[in-house]
Automatic annotation (TrEMBL):
CDD domains: KAS_III (cd00830). The lineage of its organism: Bacteria, Pseudomonadati, Pseudomonadota, Gammaproteobacteria, Alteromonadales. Residues 281-370 form the Beta-ketoacyl-[acyl-carrier-protein] synthase III C-terminal domain. It comes from Aliiglaciecola litoralis. It holds the Pfam family ACP_syn_III. Residues 149-225 form the Beta-ketoacyl-[acyl-carrier-protein] synthase III N-terminal domain. This is Beta-ketoacyl-ACP synthase III. Keywords: Acyltransferase, Transferase. It comes from the Bacteria.
Length: 372
């Protein structure tokens, strides 16, 4: 099909929160909560908040710190959520702003001007509003002609977005597509929940996808093919949505934020992802041994170790399956794209690589790529 990734961009928020800072704040919150509710806890009406531990977080997940768009408010025990000023309709929205940062970097890497792009896809776990689309706002801010739309596929939003771009180029419905993943997830993190307060961070990534004949980027990758699967599961869920206003329950309740059965996810998703990847490689008569670089979803270091071990029959060598979650944490769909962005320039022409997301939905999306 001659469709290539011709450039990528990464925007990293300037603020970060270490495990120690996050755990200290959570534990203070838990003490305060337990003191304030001591009678109800003693009476068995409320469950006491358990304490978190920085050692547990690093050991169970591999996460050491996470970046956040706005740090103010997150560690405040009387708030436990970011304090982000609401902007007027005339201002650039927060999510479009971070999308633009990554988009401009990807355009530069691909040697593209706004006039070269004819479609913009904003694909991520959440959009800050339903309409007008963030993609159309970004399109307008960059002065791009053509069309744009938003897509939500949780952890697989970035890969599924690239899949749509691939199909548009292959079908000649677009010549050059900008796919952006502004993962502004911190407002959806329940910082008062010991089991999930440490998991996520904010980031924005972008990719330029175009036909090989127009690509001039310094590091180009042929997309050999795409593969996707979804399988319904309630094990990762957020009930936040536009219906909240009509339900006579709190629109801010814990079920309206990210929550999961982490153990079940781990157990179910790892074998699914390994089987999916092996089948995708087989389509090109490749085996895992033929793959030089694995750019995998970044949710948990132990998941990636297990998946690469299942595929390769041995531990991945240093650099073979780069980990970025140690400092970015889980950035929803952007993880595999961050890994790609930071670790692709050293590949030689002809080297194979694999980009794969796995998570909520469940959803898995992959691209087999070859350095040009
Ligand atoms: N500190 C201390 N102890 C803890 C903590 C903590 N912070 N958290 C849990 N514990 C305790 C547990 O309560 C448990 O105690 P006990 O044995 O007494 O019951 C013990 O530690 C072990 O707990 P777990 O079995 O839960 O621990 P795990 O080793 O399984 O690790 C993980 C937990 C890290 C959550 C792990 O299960 C995991 O990573 N699973 C995979 C999860 C995953 O990939 N999820 C996908 C996330 S979804 C996504 O990627 C995008 C969604 C959209 C974005 C949303 C943005 C907000």
């Amino acid at each position: 099909k001659n469709v290539v990734i011709s450039g990528s961009g990464l925007w990293t928020p300037e603020h970060s929160i270490s495990n120690a800072e996050l755990v200290e704040s959570y534990n203070q919150y838990a003490s305060k909560f337990n003191q304030e509710n001591s009678k109800a806890i003693e009476a068995g009406e409320i469950v006491a908040k358990p304490y978190s531990s920085a050692e547990f977080v690093e050991k169970a997940s591999g996460i050491k710190s996470r970046h956040v768009y706005v740090k103010e408010g997150v560690l405040d025990v009387n708030r436990m959520r970011p304090k982000i000023p609401e902007r007027s309709d005339d201002e650039l929205s927060h999510q479009a702003e971070i999308a633009l940062h990554a988009a401009k970097k990807a355009l530069k890497a691909a040697n593209k001007k706004a006039s070269d792009i004819d479609a913009v896809i904003v694909s991520c776990a959440y959009t800050q509003r339903s309409y007008p689309a963030i993609a159309i706002e970004v399109q307008g801010a960059l002065g791009i002609k053509g069309f744009g739309f938003d897509m939500l596929v949780a952890c697989s939003a970035a890969t599924f977005g690239v899949h749509r771009a691939y199909e548009m180029i292959a079908a000649e419905t677009a010549k050059c597509v900008l796919v952006i993943n502004p993962e502004l997830v911190s407002p959806q993190i329940n910082y008062t929940d010991r089991d999930s307060h440490f998991i996520f961070g904010d980031v924005a990534t972008a990719m330029v996808i175009e036909h090989q004949s127009t690509a001039t980027g310094a590091h180009q990758f042929d997309i050999l093919s795409t593969k996707a699967v979804t399988d319904y599961s309630n094990n990762i869920r957020s009930n936040f949505g536009y219906m909240s206003r009509a339900f006579d329950t709190s629109p801010y309740g814990a079920d309206k934020l990210f929550h999961q059965e982490g153990r079940k996810v781990f157990k179910e998703v790892c074998p699914m992802a390994a089987a999916h990847i092996a089948a995708h490689l087989q389509r090109h008569e490749l085996t895992p041994q033929d793959v030089t670089r694995w750019w995998l979803h970044q949710a948990n270091i132990n998941m990636n170790t297990l998946i690469t071990k299942k595929l390769l029959g041995r531990e991945a060598k240093p650099g073979e399956a780069p980990i970025v979650l140690d400092r970015y944490a889980n950035t929803a769909s952007a993880g595999s794209i961050i890994a790609f962005h930071l670790h692709h320039q050293d590949l030689a022409a002809g080297d194979y690589g694999l980009i794969c997301s796995f998570g909520a939905g469940y959803s898995i999306g992959s691209m087999v790529v070859k350095k040009r």
